[in-house]
Amino acid sequence: MSDTTSAATEAHKYGAALAADIESRWQDRWEREGTFDAPNPVGDLAAADGAAEIERPHAFIMDMFPYPSGAGLHVGHPLGYIATDVYARFMRMTGHNVLHTLGYDAFGLPAEQYAVQTGTHPRVTTEANMANMRRQLRALGLGHDSRRSIATIDPAYYRWTQWIFLQIFNSWYDEQIGRARPIDELVAQFESGERAVPDGRAWSELSAVERADLLSEYRLAYAKQAPVNWCPGLGTVLANEEVTADGRSERGNFPVFKANLRQWMMRITAYADRLIDDLDLLDWPDAIKLQQRNWIGRSEGARVDFALESGTEKITVFTTRPDTLFGATYMVLAPEHELVDRIVPEAWPAPSPGSAGLAEEWTGGFETPADAVAAYRKQAAAKSEVERQSEGRQKTGVFTGAYAVNPVSGERVPVFIADYVLAGYGTGAIMAVPAHDHRDFEFARVFKLPMRCVVQPSDDRGTDPSTWDDAFVSYDARIVDSANGQVSLDGLGVVEAKKKISDWLAEQGIGEGTVTYKLRDWLFSRQRYWGEPFPIVYDEDGVAHALPDSMLPVELPEIDDYSPRTFDPEDEHTAPETPLSRREDWVDVELDLGDGKGKRRFRRETNTMPNWAGSCWYELRYVDPDNAEQVVDPVNENYWMGPSPQKRAGGVDLYVGGAEHAVLHLLYSRFWHKVLHDLGHVSSSEPFHKLFNQGMITAYVYRDERGFPVPAAEVEERDGQFFFEGQPVRREMGKMGKSLKNAVAPDDICRDYGADTLRLYEMTMGPLDVSRPWETRAVVGSFRFLQRLWRNVVDEDTGEVVVTDEEPDTETLRFLHKTIDGVRADMAGLRFNTAVAKCIELNNHLVKRGSTPRSVAEQLVLLVAPLAPHIAEELWSKLGHQQSLAHQPLPEADPRYLVEDTVTAVVQIKGKVRARLEVSPEISEAELEAAALADEAVRRALGGADIRKVIVRAPKLVNIVPA
Asked: What is the DSSP letter of 36?
């Protein structure tokens, strides 16, 4: 072959060079023609050529907000982005108007930490990172409506983040009607006397400071002095959700300490019930719903006061089972409980009458209660909350030396401290009913504590708990042995008993029925620079004032020093100094707030909002990104996100992202959205209707003898062993990332194989919702499929189309339409790995056939298009079509070719498969039985034995039971 011929062949052969050319050309064309632009009903993005597209079914498909990292993308990052792009392309081809775009959650600590280290402004590095990420994502052929892309650092965007904050600040939650209302309506109630001022004075008698303080007790956004999580390593406070179970920062793994600071808070607790109840309206994974329910932690039960045997102190517990109060035989406080120091006596008390003395298990072998408690507290402090709550762990604790009195039985009950009780849940104290609680049962066994059965067992274990293997826990049993001279629960069911005892406790003034939550108000201040400024100023009396809309956005000023100055949380004379506080000309301002008081001196809020703020509402801005008058036009919001019979709460049609955001982002977003809904700004009451959590791409990590990761790309394998620079290293599976030195850049795969290959490989690695290991050597399998697809349509020597105009045979038609039917179902169900497999099988069938009918080639290309759009567009063009296939109808299966000629009937004898018969789908039971009994393999297996019964389930099963 001549060099000229060889060059011509290479020009038409689908390889890395041709793939790169095809992909670049089609990406340019999509951008030039606005192929993926989705029209709005009204406004700047409304369709110019009428309402045809708007009248089609519509779908809003979203990825979770990416943070633009300086390291760029590795191949694990775009897994979800490719999946949503495949689905969005599929939806367009099934006749939908699809909104699909991507923005950037660009405020946050990484850019600021880099700024502290280098002096480079966070905006400079962040915008450079965004530009690089846009380049990488564009190279993947993602079909985004780029007109709708936003970045949280754009003042035009965070102007509306600040506006939403003010909506929350200027609102209160009316529990009587169960929704948020403007704060002015609450003020009107105080002014008219409809709502009484707590101290009995008239509203007009209160000073401005007193009015502000009173309203802060109601506002959904408020500032208060509160114990907070201070992280010196990050120079800021953190929300509870940002602190790990072992007391370290989620970002950076720095130690976190408690400190008292004045901070902005969000009253998310007001929405606790709705946040739980409305999960039933959402199409979310059950595991995510459970995590949200557990985080909110709603528990219905009763508050009960236990008086201490000596002194005037009392221990208040919250219990979900007040019906078992007669069975409480001891109490447990969390080691951190504030009462512990006050109730511990100087010496161990005298043992109960008839006992030989306090057991060593109770005292820990210490001579005084104070020593025992101090030692145990030190031991407990070294454990994380996760460790303390882990199942199956040996229960530990120590007697405090104090006794309380059971308020219903009058019995003396010892008070312990134990690490399985947490200070942050309920009241940090429990009444222990060991006969009917698994953890209490384990503790009682270890410490030889009495157990009393007060719930009638439904099995034959009897009523003596000392003979049981474990506690008896039931919500559907009768209460026994639970009566005193004033109240009896005997014979009642759990529900009736809980109500009766709760009412009695309230009558006695020693308790009441109540509901508690683990959820706490959301800490919303950060002592950092790179975040949204608060639209709040303080007057000379320290009263907070909302800035008028005309003064938004409050833009970040330029500063020279980005470092927050830390402080000692135990030193009351020190306080954190935020970077913004050092720009005094920005902080101290003279403003006319339009309240009729003219210009006055104010001081700006110098904290910034957390990085969660911008991601709490970005779905709304995607809907209407250029609206300068409203956060979102109601018509556009209702079109894309409004409620319907299929999504009762409304919201985004499909939201794809990692399960790690189960609480933080999703809970916060739901809260903000519900406030906006209550105030009439949006028609949907939930932001995200359907949630799908994609899995993670993992990769091998190689560690040296010190345990440090080494560059995976430089590791050599020899005889099953692994070496780095000649030294042995060990291999393990882990996350893909820069820190583990195992990241693979998508740029490298695109360079060597093309973006379509990368897209296909990531979609074929396994089900989308499970984690899967990356293997670069396996990428070539997807590449070879695309090469075979190309050769079925294009001659590699001449570049000419080689399809034929012949009619496909019946076998090919059956194969084609089964593939169409399967691929459509798989794509609708996000089963992209099996959709690819079906396309490969059809393509292989065409290879074996030896020629490709044009009608089959065109339909195969359309089926492949959502998965590998560049090569599909090129083949579609070569097949004679001038328009992009992005909006072409996806093929539909002809039902005639889905009917099977035969089906496989399984014949079992004694449960074992002995034969498989190819039979007609219409075969009768009698005919199938006769065919089974006549089969030679069946006759051999029976060996002449008599037959007792034949069970037939035509056309697929025959079960023969020998005598």
From this structure: T
